TrEMBL record:
Protein name per its UniProtKB record: L-lysine exporter family protein LysE/ArgO
Organism whose genome encodes this protein: Pelagibacter ubique
Entry annotated with the keyword Membrane: yes
Keywords (A to Z) from UniProt: Cell membrane, Membrane, Transmembrane, Transmembrane helix
Keyword Lipid metabolism: no
Compartments, record wording: Cell membrane
Main location: membrane
Membrane topology: Multi-pass membrane protein
Residues that span the membrane, as ranges: 6-26, 35-61, 67-86, 107-124, 144-165, 177-198
Listed InterPro entries: LeuE-type
Length: 201
């Protein structure tokens, strides 16, 4: 059980760091847009990457070189630029919360969630490489318990984040409040792009 608890604590300490994916989950919660689907994709993705890292760390470390990381960073920048552009373009549009969920298709949310998850190189450094490296000397049964603990932390975090945001959405059902939220999102994503550019340079 100690490895289950260790996996939980290690994972939650990594995932608590604010990032583009977390901001996206919060936004979908505030808008009440397919929250369960978003949280489920994020959680299952972490589950897959965590166990890939734990059991295949030695294999991946040979191939995840600086060139591949650079490609992921460039793709993430392009993805974030498109996201910021759409935010700025629709900045003055009215947000109708009662119909928001109906207007956004599941396919659109699916691809956005996948983009924020798999185009982010930090999701690989946290799950595949950090957790994989951390647990590389564990026995197989210890690795399984460690992975389960880490995955439980991920599921609890994303679903808590999404549904807590949904609960707080009652305070965001105001056009002025939502514009402030959008300014924060645009600013945060812009700073994130700048940070990624610094890493590339």
């Amino acid at each position: 059980m100690e490895y289950l608890f260790l996996g939980f604590l290690t994972s939650i300490s990594l995932i608590l760091a604010i990032g583009a994916q977390n901001i996206f989950v919060i936004e979908q919660g505030l808008k009440k847009q397919h929250i369960f689907l978003v949280c489920l994709i994020c959680s299952i993705s972490d589950f897959i990457l965590i166990f890939l890292g734990i059991f295949l760390f030695h294999y991946f470390i040979q191939y995840f070189n600086s060139t591949i990381e650079l490609i992921f960073n460039i793709l993430l920048i392009l993805f974030l630029l498109h996201f910021i552009y759409s935010k700025i373009k629709n900045y003055n549009s009215s947000v109708i919360f009662n119909s928001e969920k109906k207007n956004i298709s599941k396919i659109s949310i699916l691809f956005k969630t996948i983009g924020f998850t798999y185009l982010n190189p930090h999701v690989y450094s946290d799950t595949v490489f950090f957790l994989g490296n951390f647990s590389k000397n564990f026995l197989n049964n210890e690795k399984i318990l460690f992975g389960i603990g880490a995955s439980i932390a991920s599921f609890l975090f994303f679903f808590s984040l999404g549904y807590l945001s949904k609960f707080l959405s009652q305070y965001a059902e105001n056009q002025k409040v939502w514009k402030v939220i959008n300014i924060f999102i645009i600013t945060f994503m812009s700073v994130l792009i700048f940070y990624i550019l610094l890493e590339i340079i």
